């Protein structure tokens, strides 16, 4: 991917990397190459790469949003790769990076705290980058879009907003992934793969319909409460989702015509005299 990242780009993305010298940038710069490959292959895809390179070829005072978030995310990947190798000091304005023996490095506890903050910031930049890509025609049709948005609660930012009471830490987000995947599989069995895949594709291509918008919200809410082991809320929200899907056969034909719908409406055998299997 042909884009250049300079010292100003790094310091804009990560204030902690601000330094009057170029030594910090020079420590991070060799890792931009691998980070660019990772972002290009796993997130941007061919369509995203072409758009980013197109934006980078135009001289403007400020980078367009897609180019900026791409650069920011590459900077986070590269910086966190060498983070433990850098000397850190707590300055009056926050953490800074030093490369001399005249100042005492920050404590391990503070370094770990900063690392956690940076990982959260990286996740938020990732969400902004993907949100921009969803607006790019054709991006959502690529294989990398399916990897990136593999369930309806793919976004750390959305998960954090749903939590509301307190900010989600990276450990909680990591632990939630298996539970979200488990709930996703359960819902596929009960509202159909076809409907879930349709909703996912609408999210990837930023083309959510008015009919599916409330369904997508309710599915995201179910994934969230399941990840919290809140089964009381899960049962309540699941009932509401099924009620929504069963309000209108014309709106939700994928569900109504599915084996999932049939399974949800299995009727027990009525032992009446008009039935061939009647038992006296």
* Alpha-beta classification: mainly alpha
| Major beta-sheet overview | 2 strands, antiparallel
Can you give the helix content as a percent range?
55-70%
Strand composition percent: under 5%
**Strand segment count:** 2
Radius of gyration: 24 Å
Principal-axis shape equals globular
Number of helices: 13
Give an overview in words.
With 280 residues, this protein is mainly alpha-helical. The chain has 13 helices and two strands, in the order ααααββααααααααα. It has a two-stranded antiparallel ribbon with strand order 1-2. A hairpin with a 2-residue loop joins strand 1 and strand 2. Helix 1 crosses helix 4.
Topology at a glance:
Layout: H1 7-13, H2 23-28, H3 32-56, H4 65-82, E1 87-91, E2 94-98, H5 108-134, H6 143-148, H7 156-163, H8 170-191, H9 193-204, H10 213-227, H11 231-245, H12 253-256, H13 259-264
Task: For the structure shown, list the relevant keywords.
280 residues, mainly alpha, two-stranded antiparallel sheet, 13 helices, 2 strands, globular, disordered C terminus
Quick rundown:
The protein is mainly alpha-helical and 280 residues long.
């Amino acid at each position: 991917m042909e884009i250049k990242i300079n010292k100003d780009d790094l310091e804009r993305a990560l204030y902690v990397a601000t330094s009057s010298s170029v030594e910090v940038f020079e420590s991070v710069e060799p890792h931009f190459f691998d980070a660019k490959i990772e972002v290009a292959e796993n997130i941007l895809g061919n369509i995203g790469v072409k758009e980013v390179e197109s934006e980078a070829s135009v001289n403007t005072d400020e980078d367009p949003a897609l180019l900026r978030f791409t650069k920011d995310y590459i900077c986070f990947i590269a910086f966190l790769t060498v983070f433990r190798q850098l000397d850190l000091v707590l300055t009056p304005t926050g953490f800074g990076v030093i490369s001399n023996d005249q100042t005492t490095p920050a404590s391990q506890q503070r370094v770990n705290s900063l690392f956690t903050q940076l990982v959260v910031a990286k996740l938020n930049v990732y969400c902004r980058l993907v949100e921009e890509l969803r607006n790019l025609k054709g991006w959502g049709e690529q294989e990398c879009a399916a990897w990136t948005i593999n369930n309806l609660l793919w976004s750390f930012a959305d998960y954090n907003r749903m939590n509301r009471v307190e900010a989600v830490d990276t450990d909680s987000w990591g632990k939630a992934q298996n539970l979200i995947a488990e709930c996703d599989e359960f819902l596929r069995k009960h509202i159909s793969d076809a409907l879930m895949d349709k909703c996912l594709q609408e999210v990837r291509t930023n083309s959510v319909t008015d009919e599916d918008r409330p369904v997508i919200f309710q599915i995201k809410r179910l994934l969230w409460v399941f990840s919290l082991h809140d089964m009381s809320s899960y049962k309540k929200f699941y009932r509401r989702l099924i009620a929504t899907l069963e309000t209108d056969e014309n709106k939700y034909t994928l569900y109504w015509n599915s084996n999932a719908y049939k399974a949800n409406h299995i009727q027990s055998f009525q032992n009446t005299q008009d039935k061939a299997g009647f038992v006296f």
